Amino acid sequence: MDRVRDILLQKSPHESIASEQDVIMAYRLILGREPENSAAVENIISKRMQLKEMRDTFIRSAEFRHNVIGSIGGMLKPLDWDVGCIETEVDDDTLALLYAHVERVWSDLGTTEPHYSVLTNEKFKSGKFNQYAAEFFASGSSSLQVFQKTLQRNSINITQFRDCFELGCGVGRVTIKLAEIFPKIIAVDVSAPHLELARNALTPSARKVVEFRKLESIKSFDLLPNFDVFYSVIVLQHNPPPVIGILLKKILSKLRDGGIAYFQVPTSALGYRFDSRTYLKEFMDNTNMEMHVFPQRELFQIIKEQGCRVMEVREDNLVGSRNMISNSILVIK
Fold it and tell me: What is the fold, at CATH topology level, of the domain defined by 92-332?
């Protein structure tokens, strides 16, 4: 108690001069590392900075801005990233090749690691999944809560909508929760193995309202009925940019007037570039999960062209990378 009393009686940070120990602790707590050498510490001490001034100096440093801020929940990113060249429109034949590639990759993942491909945590791999299955499916509630809170912030009553279209339902993790709210769900995926697991995961009550569809090609989207709600999270990011663009155009065109769309997509990444010709040469044999970006300016243009307007855009932490910016977006038609 005496030690606590002594600390409380000390001068405020506005008045105290940073000591050697203060500087060392600033390195550890703010930059997350030890000082590079004693000279660096002595240089700061020699400036006789007050504690608050020293703290602000560390926080304003390029090292903190680039290496630390970007790793806080994967959310806060610098604003000075360069623009990469990203091709977002291709001819129909190229589009078909890109979509077929996505189908091959995800059908393979659906056979080998279906649950891990949805949430990339080691405990959800096939050898361990049964032990953590309850935790996996319970996470769908958290995803739905984010969706519901977004609607509440924008004064939108979720109970007014009749049906929901879910793109990339995977193994049904969120589908089961959506079925508790909407009278009808159209849940689609590109992977037949994922869809089969989703069907098996449905509760008896969910089976009454969920309709599953496998999207065989881009043209499959033209056969979809209109709907009130579009929901898709951690899905679009696994498609090349031209596929992301055409999917959003077709899906938003199916949204009824007064309907809403809530979806997530990465909109920027350090060093990310895409051109279909290079991609088709170098990545068509790839069977690993991919991460892609769709430029925000073109995203907003698609939203506008489809008669929708943006209600909310939030930078989220759904990509798990400090070098990629992901946005969760709410639009209304």
Answer: Rossmann fold (3.40.50)
